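Q: Here's a chain of 126 amino acids. Please give me its 3D structure as tokens.
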Amino acid sequence: MSAIVSIVTGVVNSAVTKSTQLVNCAVYWGKVGAEVGKFVYKAEGMAPPSQGEFQKVYSNFLNFLKGSDHAAVIVKNFRSLGANNKEAAFKLGALGLQCYGFFALGEIIGRRKLVGYPSFSHAEHH
């Protein structure tokens, strides 16, 4: 009976140690992400939208959903963006790269591995 208790105790201790390490890592990277977010927020001069700005965007979005000609205008504006204003095109590319970086970071966190997917099986292949 004591052998079973010692095995269970070892398993529980191992699980507690691993979960504590995982929580500590998550807290650390959460704090790092918050600090980076604050830096970007201050450097870019960001601010939450006012109520008027939010209502304007929401009404524009509803009008977009109601009308079909808005999509053609957006495509036309998007195509003319790079031709007329290289700085705006550069900012758009930088924003796209940032979005891809956040997506890739989410993939890494989701897989819990930097490259590839983790292998959970310990079976030998013959």
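Q: Can you summarize the key feature?
A: The chain has a mean pLDDT of 81.
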